[in-house]
Every structure is written in C-alpha cells, then in structure tokens.
Amino acid sequence: MVYYFTSNVVDPPATLPKLPLMPPADEPPTDEELIKYGWEEDFHVDNLSSAHVYLRLSEGQEWNKLPPAIVEDCAQLTKANSIDGNKKDNVTVIYTPWSNLHKNAGMATGQVGFHEQKKVLKTLVPTRHNAIINRLTKTRTIASTDSLASDKEAQLKQLRAKAHAVKQAERKEEERVRKEQREEKWKREHAYEELHKGLGEDDGGDADEGTRGRSNQEEWDEDDFM
After folding, report:
1. Alpha-carbon distance 67 to 10, whole Å?
2. Which of 48, 35, 61 is nearest to 94 (CA)?
3. Contact between 35 and 17 (Cβ < 8 Å)
4. Cα–Cα distance between 19 and 136 in angstroms, integer?
5. How far apart are CA 167 and CA 170, in angstroms?
C-alpha cells in the first residue's frame, strides 16, 4: 500500500499536489515501487533507515527553490517514519530530484545512490514536531501500490500531450512566418512590375501626343501653302 499526505502550508494550497509516503520501513517493497515509478519532478527525502517521501511538485516549481515550510513538512514526515531517526534529535534529512536517484541490482531493498552529489541538498531537523505530524496524518489516504504505475503513466501521457501542443504551436508559428515572408516577397516583385508597367504607359502616351502634334502641324503648313 501507499500512504498519501496533503500539505497545506503553502498559499494557495490547491497548487501543491499530494505527498506520497510508503508505510514504515518494515514494508520495503512499496519503497521499491516508489523508486521505480517516481515522477521526474518528485522531491526525494531520506536519511538513516527510513521511509522515502516524494513531493510531487506543481507545474513551474523547482525542487531546489521550495518554500521552507514544505521542506520542513517533508523532513518531519521522513524523520517520523524512521525507526532510528524518530528517536533522535538533530537529524539530517537529504533530498534530491527523482531523476538523480541511482539504483542497481547490487543494492539492498530501498537503498539508492545519486548520479550527481551536487544535486543533493540537506536540511536539519532539530526535533520532532508533533503538531506537523498530526496535521499531515489527518490528511492521509491509502491506495494500492498498483496506483503508482497508473499515476506514472497518466503523468507521462500529460507531459506528452503538452509537448505535442508546444510542437503544434511552434509549427503553426513557423508556417505563419513563412506565409508572411512569401506575401512580402510577392508584393515586392509585383510592385516592381507595376512600376515598370506604369513607366511604359507614360512613355507611350508622350510618343502618341508628339506624333499627333507633328501631323497637325504638317496639315496646317500644307493648307497655308495652298
């Protein structure tokens, strides 16, 4: 099973998603499923032998620029679900993006490493705050481990749809620009043709006028001679 907690310490609370939490460390298979089906924007917290807490970030949030209050919620939840950490003060909790987690076949159940140590941050938890744990516990819901796979697929489908929409918008914008360029080119080319055509008509008109003038002059001279 998977425990889901909701944190309302940020404003507006509706913009923050749920906090998935595995049951205590005596149920490691759930932890493996959380590692396997983590979201690219998941916020991972663990220390000592403990549960892994994943914060599903809302769109636009950055894992390393989170409000201190939400970091404290995650850290308190992690400490409370650590057999050793829950009994100690001044516990250090580490967190990193899900994509930075490293897992291989030689690792124990629930054990992870990190691809880049520079992407691992730390926060100190001086002592357990029962008020925080009680507030989060009141929001707890329970779901089947199978929901992790379906949630992951739904999230990937949403990301693919957004990426497709972005590409469609880019293609439309590119086509609009190309159309404008074609129209501008057509206008320039035809404006040049129209200019030449106009000049040709003016020259032809002057020539006719001159011819008529000479013809009239010749007729006048001929009559006058007679």
Report:
1. 8
2. 48
3. no
4. 10
5. 5
DSSP for 82-120, please give it: BTTGGG-SSEEEEEEEGGGEE--TTSPTT--EES-GGG-
The three-class DSSP label of residue 134 is helix
Task: Report helix, strand or coil for 56.
Answer: strand
Q: Is 30 exposed, middle or buried (0-12, 13-18, 19+ CB in 10 A)?
A: buried
Q: Which residues contact 109 (CB under 8 A, 6 or more apart)?
A: 28, 29, 31, 32
pTM above 0.90, yes or no: no
Tokens of 142: 């329970």
pLDDT tens profile 56-111 = 877 777 888 888 998 999 889 888 888 888 888 998 988 888 888 887 777 766 66
**Cα–Cα dist 74/23, whole Å:** 15
pLDDT digits (tens, 9 = 90+) for 21-41: 444 444 444 566 777 777 765
* 114: CB partners within 8 A, 6+ apart: 96, 100, 101, 102, 120
**How many Cβ atoms from other residues are within 10 Å of residue 136's Cβ?**
22
Per-residue b/e over 86-96, b at no fewer than 16 CB within 10 Å? beeeebebebb
Residues 68, 74, 77, 83, CA torsion sign: negative
